[in-house]
Amino acid sequence: MYDPLIDPAVPAAQPYPASYWAASTASTEPCNPLMADISTDVLVIGAGYTGLSCAIELAGELGREVTVLDANQSGWGCSGRNAGFVLRGTGRLGLAQLAKRYGTETAQQFHLEYGAALERVQQLIAAADIDCQAQAPGYLKVAHKAALGRQLPQQAEYLQRQFGYQVEYLSQAELQQRYMHNTQAFGAIRFPDCFGVNPLALAQGYAKLAQQSGAAIYGATPVLSWQRSGQGFIVQTPQATVQCRQIILATNAYTGKGFYPQLNRASLPALSSVIVTQPLTAQQLAASGLNHTQLVMDTRALKYYYRKLPDNRLLFGGRSAVYGKDADKACYPERLLVALKQCFPQLQQLEMAYHWSGWVSVSFDDMPRICQSEPGLFYAAGYCGSGLSFSSLAGKRLAQLASGVTLPPLPIYQSGLTPFPLPQFRRLGQQAYYQWGRFKDRYL
Ligand SMILES: Cc1cc2nc3c(=O)[nH]c(=O)nc-3n(C[C@H](O)[C@H](O)[C@H](O)COP(=O)(O)OP(=O)(O)OC[C@H]3O[C@@H](n4cnc5c(N)ncnc54)[C@H](O)[C@@H]3O)c2cc1C
């Protein structure tokens, strides 16, 4: 598999990965490659949620002329292959950690901004009538140890008091009775507003909306390089050049090694993997208690997340290989299946039907950035694997930033991503973190 820390450029004109989403989503007409030179006001590179939402805002709300180029197709990157958890948050810090780092008032502003991200997804779904199988809401953050379960009532009370967030504490018995017969679940906090979608259908819906708003989208068109020219840029693709005034990089974790070193040095691309099982029988659903649409994630350092899909399959995900060359090794999906069965021994007979992986962009300080990194050039990246809702808002914020609109005064809008110290050792650091995470999750 393509490895952004090793390969100089993202592969181009690739089919969607062989995911459950690709197999179960009605295919849309692929966008043609760019074959002749053009000029445009804003060039957006990358047609995931970030780039497409940015194009929707630029063309639809800000009246700008915009062209989107993707090396592959809309949603080929993370956006068409994620788990479909529309969560209220991004990065790796929860509200309590944000309050500790930035103060309570700023954390409250983050909470509002995260709410705006959820609303952005809902608005775009409604605006284009996107059939992305949005499920009834609810997200369970499940304690995987008894000691962590005992902290939940206090955490829930803190979220209610400081943020007015109407979360619900569920004891181990309530969780078992209402939502799951998971042997490794010791209580949960239920967040009422998060929900599950088909992520590829969502990305394709965004692409349609971007086009309806007036943006041009070209697929199978990798941007190879750019140089400054007059007030703007000349951008090189395999068949043609693009003259533009501004460039927006929405390539996130798929940014090739040599593409924009400033961004590459500040992001650690990490693999996230998902398995999807055969549909559960009525008996298996009853035995596991999973006959509902709640999103679930646990409190492990190396988290597991799962949800029931509309056709009664289970999607179960977690961290995977460190290097792209190892992504397709059978041991990684097998480990996920073993983990699923350890949580739900009632599902011993369940088989895996799909497995795939993708790169998420982990930032040095666990938070994304939306910024102008040099005159005329903007990027959003570093969602740390929690970017479905937030990238949809980040695209809008990028469009506003590039159009001179003042953004909310949040730290993630004030600077670029922090470069990793000793970036050549990022993968060693990641391996050490995984070892530590496995030890912590098991013994601490
Ligand atoms: C397995 C998995 C599960 C996940 N589950 C969730 C989840 O449930 N909830 C959640 O919130 N987040 C989840 N995420 C993360 C989430 O999917 C991402 O944060 C989000 O999709 C990022 O969108 P994006 O538009 O920034 O990037 P992407 O969707 O990755 O888009 C980047 C695009 O840039 C293009 N590109 C790169 N280089 C070039 C170039 N030189 N020229 C032209 N095009 C280029 C690529 O082809 C790609 O299409 C998951 C990720 C993975 C991998």
UniProtKB/TrEMBL annotation:
Pfam families the record matches: DAO (PF01266)
Claim: Calcium is one of the keywords in the record: no
UniProt KW Cell membrane keyword: no
Gene3D superfamilies with a match to the protein in the record: D-Amino Acid Oxidase, subunit A, domain 2, FAD/NAD(P)-binding domain
Domain FAD dependent oxidoreductase residue range list: 41-401
Swiss-Prot/TrEMBL keywords: Oxidoreductase
Domain of life: Bacteria
Leader sequence residues: none
Cited PANTHER family: FAD DEPENDENT OXIDOREDUCTASE DOMAIN-CONTAINING PROTEIN, SARCOSINE DEHYDROGENASE-RELATED
Protein name in the entry: FAD-binding oxidoreductase
Gene source species: Rheinheimera muenzenbergensis
